[in-house]
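@channel sequence for tomorrow's demo:
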Amino acid sequence: SLPPLFYGYAEKPSRVSPSSLISFDRNRYSVDCRYVGQTVQMRVYAARIVIVKDCQVVGDHKREFGRDKTVFDPWHYISAMEIKPGSLRNGAPFKDWDLPESIQQVHKLLKQRYSDWDRQFVGILAAVALYGLEAVEGACRQALNGCLVSKEVVLNILHRDRDHGIDVLLEPGACLMLRNEPIADCQRYDHLLREVYHAAQ
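structure tokens (generated this afternoon):
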């Protein structure tokens, strides 16, 4: 049998730049922007660069062996985009971002229909941290099928699916309908009358 794989790495501290990047071997790698200005631990593997802060992975990239390359993970910049959604328009981390098809379609329609499309789209992307990429992708697909596309529509779909687990459509007034009709109990009425009569004696 083959010997076990060796997963050794060299570790060194690195300070995260204002652009949320660390440098190694003349290349730069992005880090979750919440850690700008902080010192993180960079684990250099044979084929990957893994960045860790307080035992939590805050960056994970394929290692580059050229020079002067910058490797971005667009998800690292979501919290910054919530503050400055305009950065989505020309920001380097977001060029050629390979998002699921339904999310790309929502992005395209928002740009066509709304002046604040960047703010709306960032709001949808930010929901990934709470619901997961698969759920957001599905909500975008439902919004496209319903021909109503906006941040509010996508977020409402996500809230509904989380609260109910499945889609439930009710007719108007259905929640007010009785499932079991009450049965009149005349004997109970007679019993109450007897109690009142004895109490008056």
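heads up for whoever presents: Residues 166-182 have pLDDT under 50 and may be disordered.
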